[in-house]
Amino acid sequence: MFLALLSFILGFCSLFNPCLPHHQACPALCCVIPASDTTKATPYTIIRAITITGNKKTKRRIILRELDVHPGDSLLNHRIDTVLLTNKNKIFNTNLFITVDLILQNKEGNVADLHIKLKERWYFFPAPLFELVDRNFNEWWHQRNRDLTRVRYGIRLTQDNVFGLNQKLELLFLTGFVNQYSVSYRMPYIDRAQKMGLSFQVSYTQNKSIPYRTEGHQLDFLESEKILKEQFSSAVSLRRRSKFYDFHTIALSYHQSKLADTIPQINPLYFLDGNNTQKYFKLQYTFEHNKTDINAYPLNGSIYRGSIEKYGLGFFNDVDMLATTFTMAKYKRLGRGFFADVLLRGRYLLHQRQPYSISRGLGYGNNLLRGYEFYVLDGQHFFLNRNTLKFRFVNTRKELGFIPIPQFRTLPLAMYFTFYFDTGYVSDRFFTEVNNRFTNRFIYGTGVGIDIVTYYNMIIRCNYALNSGLEHGFYITFSADL
Description:
mainly beta, 16-stranded antiparallel beta sheet, four-stranded mixed beta sheet, 22 strands, 9% helix, 52% strand
């Protein structure tokens, strides 16, 4: 299967002329920053003015907020391309534009204008949804026998860039395997200095099927015609952007859940002590330093993130835990189309007792060790290390004139061969009776694959992996900003 997929991808790539020169462009944009026309006599260029075109809706101040270049600044000629690339990536990371180009024009002596040429995204998505409820596509395909009843369907209404200020409104209506209704609103800036942001979220969920325990590192589900679990949550968060790459976030949330009596009877640890209700507040502080070229698929730069989470603030006695997590990642451009990245992530949990409902180790969300897509490793503490070497063999952008919507005519495409080696460790002292194969010991996963980056930061990863249990398989994961 892997060789067949590889042959298909290589044949598809031949349509896009993969033998393009490797330039300094982001993987999703593939747009070239023209070399500046500098003079040998003057070692610097003065920026006379900044002009912006293509921002039909986005306010000018939202774009200028991302720049560290201003009218009157002097740029050393030998660093102009680097400066323009950095600022181009910062504008692109707002997720407001399909393409971003920075060009020096109207040059007179050592004075020039900076022109920012943009193509805005499509901002309103009344998207019909048909989503799998399992942790990933591989679990659904292999372990749930491609059961089409294990889906949730409905509509998600997303309005990005509200008022041209990069605000986001999202309404979600889902039914099927899970009933979910939610509304969220994000305002990245609420002050004149554009440093403080605010967001709100409210959600209500009903489940007729839930994973009530983990056995053999796999989730066991209980299904019923009646509602097995109801959840209500609300959250408010305040975020401060102290510097270009530094973010501080404080979030307060409330969580309330109720179970059918069946669940605590078969797993008394689900909410602890056989309870069928759970209420708690959660307070979280997060610091993030993100200095990467493209946030969705970094190729160069670094990320440092740390958070402290307090579950239970004394109003209820259902949950009382304190967790700290960290993430460190380094991305490096090696040249000649090669890239490398290293990620370290860990969590330490202080607690008296841990409910199964919020027991999360590896295997959930982005806390995935490649080669273990079929498994969840519940525990209190974990460590994850991912190491990847990449070679970019396609990097292009095509204009598809036959598409009627301008925001979808630009087809960016970047493709990478990958080789990876991951290691991890999950410490557990509560669930070892039924889950002890991969916990409390070092594990690893290694393999090769292909990453595809295209429309709206859509990322498709096709991997062939081998884990420390000598199990091997082919796995597909994907994500997108749509």
